[in-house]
Amino acid sequence: MARSFSKFVLTLSCALISCAVGSQSAKAKEAKKEATAVSLLSQKTLTDVPGGPKEHLRRLGIDTDVWVTQFFQGIAAGGNQGVSRYGGKLDVFLKVDAEKLGLWRGLRVNAQYEHYIGLNINQRDYALLPVNAAQAFVAQNNYHTALSLIVTQQLSEQLSVSVGKFNTMTLASQTPLIGGGGLDTFMNRAFALPSTGIGVASPGTVADRLIVSPPYILGGVATLKTDVATFNLIFADPRNAANPRVLERPFERGIGVVGGVTVPTEIAGLSGYHTLRGGYSNARGFDLDDIGESRTRLAPLVGVTKKGFWLASYAVQQYLVQNAEKPNVGWGLFTLATLSDGNPNPVRWSMLAGLGGNNLLPGREIDQWGVGFFHYGLTTPLLAGLAERRIYRRSEGGIEAFYNWAITPWMRLTGDLQIVEPWNANRPRGTYMALRLQTRF
Known about the structure:
The protein has helices at residues 2-42, 53-60, 168-172, 189-192, 206-209, 244-248, 293-298, 380-388, and strands spanning 62-77, 84-97, 107-118, 145-154, 159-167, 216-225, 230-236, 256-267, 270-286, 305-322, 330-340, 347-358, 368-378, 396-408, 411-421, 430-440. The protein is an alpha+beta fold.
């Protein structure tokens, strides 16, 4: 009987141990599932899993990102009311740190490939400035894809030099508070691609040369960072580098040079930046005095050109609220004012200002929002010349507001509203509404 009792105790103990092990295994699996779910909701991109390929590549000095941005935008009021379009844009980013790869100290290579998808309402709304900047330059009836490539050499801790083909909207996206590029902050070109001071010299269309800011430039940038300010010197072909001829015959129409200085400030412990730029090009642009009927009669077949143009700008970004632990997280004021020669530049002056940044409510710090207004003062020779031809145009202005809700860090849904007084004087004020969904792989 004692032997039977011992056997019973041993069997019961084994069963209890088995149950305990099974319970612990189940708990471990459940905990693993919860950890995976938490990681999926918090990781930077959809494929950036802990210990995954992207993490291993970063250790070697190679960083990759793929963004798919979808747009559904429509005209709620104004000209072509009721028109709506669905489209999108694919962006592929590649960053290579040659030093980490053991190839060359201080050398970095950045590449960006863009591909257009679907449709958009640009040029259907009678506005001069594209209301969807992200789809304005790689477009259905324009260049369908684009490739930008930048090579940067860090000469010292303070000095770096970059050369290549630049996407200026991607550069603008690095601007504090206002952002840019049309992919995750403002959509209107007024905010997404502010003035650079380098202009398109070919006659082309007024919209293509607007406020001397081609979306792609071929050239170089030297950057010097000091304790008191950051200095930039840019040289570039003044034409839109999306045109293959610019790559085949660079600088055949002239060169543009821009100098800038950014001075950081601090008010009541809050960061701010003041940026002053000046640019000049020796290229030829279409002489806007030639638009009128009298000049056209004198030279009916040949458009008169004018050599040389300049632009100056002043920008301010000032945080009004900042996260104490993460200084780059906050919201504040931004503004930009520009002044040009007014001929051949079609915009004599421009102004934009607004508020924007992050939502600082707990758990919503990566959400972004913004509201701003813009006004582009078109030059008198352009407006007067068009009026002589019975084409009535005016300066263009408007407002835009957006909220970018980060469903996860890699999936973001934006609601956007724009109200624009278009440059076509015969068309009413337009109201545009959009939803934008971005997924980062």
